[in-house]
Each structure stands twice: as structure tokens, then as C-alpha cells.
What does this fold into?
Amino acid sequence: MSEYKADDIKVLEGLEAVRKRPGMYIGTTGKSGLNHLVFEVVDNSIDEAMAGYCTDVVVHIDEHNVCSVSDNGRGIPIGIHKEKKLPAVEVVMTTLHAGGKFEGKGYKVSGGLHGVGVSVVNALGEWLKVDVRRDGKRYTNTYKRGIPVAKMGVTEDYAGDDTGTKISFMPDHKIFDDVDFTYEVIDHRLRELAFLNKGVKILFTDDREKNSEGNVETKTYQFDGGLKSYVEVLNEGKTALFNPPIYLRKERDDYEVELALQYVSDYYDETVVTFANNIRTREGGTHLSGFRSALTRVINSFAKKYDLVKDKKSNFTGADLREGLTAVISVKLRDPQFEGQTKTKLGNAEVRGIVDSLLDEGLTDSIESNPKMGKAIIGKALIAQRVRDAARKAQDLVRRKSSLESTTLPGKLADCSDSNPANCEVYIVEGDSAGGSAKQGRDRNFQAILPLRGKVLNVEKARLDKILANEEIRTLITAIGPGAIQGLNDNADQIEPPTNEELVAKLRYHKVVIMTDADVDGAHIRTLLLTFFFRYARAIIESGCLYIAQPPLYQVRKGATKKYVYNDTQLEALLTEIGREKVVIQRYKGLGEMNPDQLWETTMDPAKRTMLQVNLEDAEQANEVFTMLMGSEVEPRKNFIEKFAKEARWIDV
It folds into this structure.
């Protein structure tokens, strides 16, 4: 046994720990972590705006992926720090957990709570330059991989009271797999921040993005309507039940709560987006709980007061009242308590009561002063209630335990022998031909096969009762486990919907794999299935249980060499590499054309296959894309196709 001595204990000084374990600070060194660097710098400027000292933020990305963020805030302090004996700006740039956000003196509220933001960007940058304007002077300093190149110096004096900070940096290619920022993700976040901070102007220029004339454009985001504008944008292309959206705001001690809500008549999903100190709380939290409980209570009270329901003993369920609802909730507080390091769920218990009382007061006043609005909401809830009652009849086919467990599973499902869901995976395939190959090629111990006939129903355009009357959708639900489907679980009528953990616990397979042909029709079927999972089984996506198989499009043989390629670009590259003479190319028109052993070897063998895990980084942006691509409105879809058809690229959502 090798000796383990005191000398073996390594102490990482300064920012060395960040470079050694970057995932601990930004989650990943992939695209998500790379884009997060931009957000950390922008958040500092937005914190200045929330404090009332900044009105303009300018973000610029050049052709070499150098990002610059400048603002007209107060400028980072440059005086000598009494403990570190260094300029305060250098302390901020080189010391973890250093910032003006801990004592509540520099900032009342902030998003960058932990004080590691800009120092982590500095550590993970190939270089970073900071430019501070304050007290009539301009100060600059440059860092390389977190280490200052020289002492902070005055570069010029200037007249006037102009102040602010500009930070420019280049991500370190030694840290990140790819240093190419994702335009769509950054653009979406900047627009979101402009909505959340009413009146703040954010300008975004990306030199890598050019319009059809080959010119670079600057986007300007400034929304004087704030959250009202946000809700209106979310509801673009839909028919609003009333206009404008209801807007409420309340301050209490160190808490500020804002919310806006609106119902749409031609849409059946719920879109509620929540934030705490500008941070998207994807898993909700106490502010969302307070909102839901108050909404259900107020609308039910209004309905009974004005005799708008026949049975005064029965209430609308939370699900009835959230159908077609679009809402944005933003809370700002001094000491937010986030559950988990990802800051995805707000835990401050007191926030629930504040949001509850705000909505109770504000929504009651709104619908009492405008009874027509209140009656419209009740009318939509009554329709939702009737549809849900009708849907229960269809649900009986898939909710009864006798039809869930064992003997009455769909006849076309070829189940696996292992009964532990954690070990099992189900392949959803297109048609009996593909199903036959998959059934013969699979490992029966842990792989199940579910063939579906043709293209499944587009659930974006159908109500729940119609969806559950569709044979293929019913077959799919029964096979994977009805308890994991939103609205088909035992807790569906509660104000608080079940958690992802509660839903996924009822899955029969912890890997649900969409396996369609590698052509346009296959892509369409895959999109229809993704629409179903996003709208009615989002917990499966958010829990990382949904996958997309990657079958090859071609088999290429030359002599004894046999290779599989997955698209035309790879085919061209392979032919260039091996030469085009005496090459046999087989194009698979569908999975059914592949022999079972080929399908196993290329697509189903865990030791060799490649699968894409479907994840959900931004539910709001994904919602917009599904509404546009699969919804009833033709014009937005046409514009999207005309814009991206030639580029044929993926957009991160």
C-alpha cells in the first residue's frame, strides 16, 4: 500500500480551484457553462440596475468569440481594500466570495448572491480586461487565466460625471470543449432580463450573426410595460380572453413582488414562469405555491358569490383554473434561500404568504371591478371542467390498476423480462416493419419495443378528451405508465401538482427512447412525439428519462471495410477519406430495411450505440417553439421555415 502523508495534501490557492474543477462553479464545460460566463457578467450590470444606478447595458460578441459587457452604473470601486491591501476591483476579480452583496450595503437585492461570478469568469478566461470609469478617471487592468498582468492603472482623465464598468473576456479553449457562444440562448436571456427590469435598455450585437443582406444588426431590448409586456409576448399568436393582462405589484419590508397574468381562449396548457432576483426558478418554489393557492381560492369565491356554478358545494380544481393561463411571477428579496446549488427552487417560506396576499387582494379587485373579465375566466374553467370530466371516461381505460399491471398491457408491446424500471428501456418505433426488426434485434432482458402506427396525433391542436380517445396515444400512455402523465395521476385535482419524482416513480421504464427513421418523415414523427411528451409528460423530460436513438442513414462497404454514417455530410467526408471507387452504398429507407443484427449493432447495443438525451434548459423558449411549429397559426411557422430552411441548423431550446 502506498503511503499517504501530509505532503500529499494539496491546497489550491486563489482561483486555482476554479480552473481545476470548473464544473463545481458553472455546472459544465459544455455550451451551457460557456454561455453562463456571459450571464454572470451581465448579472452584475443588472444588479446595478436593480439598485437604481444603471439604465443601459451593452453586450457585444465579436467574430473571435470575445464578449464585452458594459454599463453606465457606478463602476466597481477602485480604492485599496483594507484587508487585502489591493485595489477593490482586483479583489473582486481574483477572490472567490468577494463582492458587495453580502452585508446588504452595496446592493439591497442581487442575482449574483454567492459572490463568485466575475472571479470565476476571470479564472476560466484565456484573458479578461476590466475598464472602470468613476471619479473623473478611467482605470484599466488585464488578467491572463485569472492572474493580473500588471497593477491597476489610470489610463486617462475625463471631464463629466460619466461612470460605469466594461468587462471583456475570451473563454479559455483549454477549459471549454467549444468556445463558440450560442447566439439564440444569450439573446433570449437578455430579452428576458429586459422584461424583468422595466425600463432598462439592453443592446446586443453579435458580429457572427448577419442578416440576409450580410450586415450585423444590433438588437435593442427595452420594455416599459415590464411583466405585462412579457405576458403579451408569450401570448403572441393566441386569442386573449381579456386585454390588457392583469398586473400587480407589492412591496413589504425587504420584499418586492410583481406578477402579470392573462388567459387565452384557444390554448389548453399552463405557462407560468417564475423568477427570484432575476434568476429563473425552473422548479418553482414558495412564490409559485402562494400564487396557485390564491388563484384557486379567489376564482372559486367569485364563482360562488355570483352564482356562476350550479353546484355550490363543488369547487374548480387547480387544473381547471390553470388551463390556458399565462403568468409571470417575479420576486426580489434580500436573502433568497434556493434549494440546491442550481438555484432552481425558491425556499423562503415567508414569500408564499406575501404572494398569496398580493394576488388575493389584487385579483379580487380586478375581477370585482370588471365582472366581465371574471365571468370569462369562469366560463373557460367550466369548459375545462366539462372536458376533464369527459376525459375521465377515457382515462378509465388507462388508470385502472387492472389495466396498468400485467395482463392488459397493449398487445403490440413486446415487454422485457426485468421488472425493475431503473434497468428497463422502451423503444417507441414507427410501424410494424421497424417493430419486427427491433423485436428480433433487442435484448429481451431489459429492452421493450412499442410499435406505433403512422403519425401520432398532434396534441398541440387537440384537447385532452380528444387526445385520450386516440388509439395510438392511449397505447403509448398505457405502455409507459399512466401515472407519469400530467392530468392522469392520482393527485391531478390538488392545487399543488405532483413533483417530478412522484410522476417518474410511476414510469414502467426509466429510459423512454424515440427510434424513428433517419429521414424527414421520421423527423416529423419524432417531433409529434416530442410535442406529446413536452405538453403532457414533461416530468419524463425534466428527469432525464427521454432519449432519441440515432440509427444510421447509410451503410458504406469497400472491400472488407464496413462503416455506418448518419447523414449526407458524414457520407461525403467518408467517401473523400476512402475514395469513391468500388464503394457500395446502401441507403436505409427505414428501420425495417435493417437486419435485426444491424439494428442492434448500430442503434440498440448499449456498448456501441449513440443516443441523444432530451433535456429542457428553457421551458418558456421550448413552449414558443412548439406553439410556432405545431400550433394552429400558419404565418409564424411559414416565417420560421423561410428563415431557417436554407441554413438547416439546430436551434438550442
Remarks:
- The chain is about 35% helix and 20% strand.
- The domain at 227-388 is CATH 3.30.230.10 (Ribosomal Protein S5; domain 2).
- Residues 237 and 549 are 33 Å apart (CA to CA).
- The longest strand covers residues 125-134.
